[in-house]
Amino acid sequence: MSKIENIKTLSKKLLNLKKKGRKIVLCHGVFDVLHIGHIKHFQSAKKLGNILVVSVTPDKFVNKGPNRPIFPLHLRMQALAALKNVDFVTANISDTATFPILNLKPNIYCKGKDYKNQKSDYTGNIKIETKAIKSVGGSIYYTQDELYSSSKIINDSSLNLSHEQRNFLKVLKSNKENKNRDIKKIINSFSNLKVLIIGETIIDEYIYCDALGKSGKEPVLAVKNLYTKKFIGGTLSIAKNLSNFCKKVTVLSYIGKKKEQLNFLKKNLEKNINFVALPKKDSCTIVKKRFVDEINKTKILGVYSIEDQLINKNEEKILINNILKQIKQHDLVIVSDYGHGLITEKIANLVVRKSKFVSVNAQLNAANVGYHTISKYKNADLVIINENEMRHEMRNKSDELNTLIKLLSLKIKSKFTTVTSGDKGSTTLIKKNKKIIKCPAFAFKVLDKIGAGDTMLAFLSLAVFKKIDMKFSMFLSALAAAFNVENEANSKVLKKADIVKSAEAYLK
Known about the structure:
CATH architecture of the largest domain: 3-Layer(aba) Sandwich
Low-confidence stretches: none
Number of domains: 2
Helix content: 25-40%
Distance between the termini: 39 Å
CATH superfamily of the largest domain: Ribokinase
């Protein structure tokens, strides 16, 4: 008889067993690498009743860090089913144990002793699960067995780490200050920050297609339109990712005339985001349509609705007045300049001059290559660009990155200059001591690169503003960027627990 059952079937079996007087105990977790700690936990749990059920977190909800889980759901379930004292194994369908608790109605929900202090559970899941078990007439019990960590075992064995990642983490952990840092405290320190974001608003529209082949009459690729998804992009995507970390987030941007687009944007924004949308004459709200192959999720064509001309003098005046008003009310300013006509050189100079702290990104895209560079932002506190953007700025394809980043820093006079290089990670030059720091990328499953640079810009801005050690700041920002590329087009908003759990897992 197979021990592995879906929750619906299992709930009926457990109901019959309870009628026969059997006491049901439920354990829940990831169980990525099955170890002695799990075994002892199950042994203790089984003593509390007659039937031990283990529910398992599905792959998409595992947030132990990039490239986790090591083992997919079906293999983790098979390993658990092989244990003699485990009676049933089932897959959960959500990110907490609430669903199996409510459906299986165990007498006891069993957790390890590290969950006993519910205040230390940054996700807040244990509080929700406790409420759920009480609602079905059960109780929660905490085993007292010695604790072991799957993440530490995985990290120590380097099962999921590259040579660069291992060395980086080794150096990071060799510093006692870094190793013992309270990640939760760092993340919580962002909570009272008021952040102003300036830049273009973008709607990302993904049109999923099935390739039909070459047209019969023309040399054209024909595709079948399957379905469309719309996402918030540009500066508003930065705001969304900061909304769970900061008290107040304000966005200064422009929009076009179509009210339905503004309604879409406002409808999909978090409550603590203040969207100051200014009209731009004779312009549309930027919509970037990308045709995506449904099978392998690769983009095959981009069609942009944009008007790239600079805002007129009256619009510039209105924007300047809003900037001067908003800057006074915010701790730091993030400028994400997509080069579509919102930020003039006058505005760029004003923002840098008037901000307490300003971080900047000036992005290249298909519409502005060769015309839009970071050079109009001089004396910014933090500048983040990708390597290709830096090489365009310096008109240099061949020199090594460290040489160019030094030259760029001298040119734009930024206090911190960070260059991202995709899967090769990021490099930061600190102007004060001329120190260069490298951080590897921590993304393993790259689904969509859209917005990764924006996410790093946002998170690194907070950390640098709070004067967190640069190496550690880059590490946290790399984890934030990894979260972004593993999800489709900014479809998921970054949460505190995503960073905390991932960072803690790597530092074990």
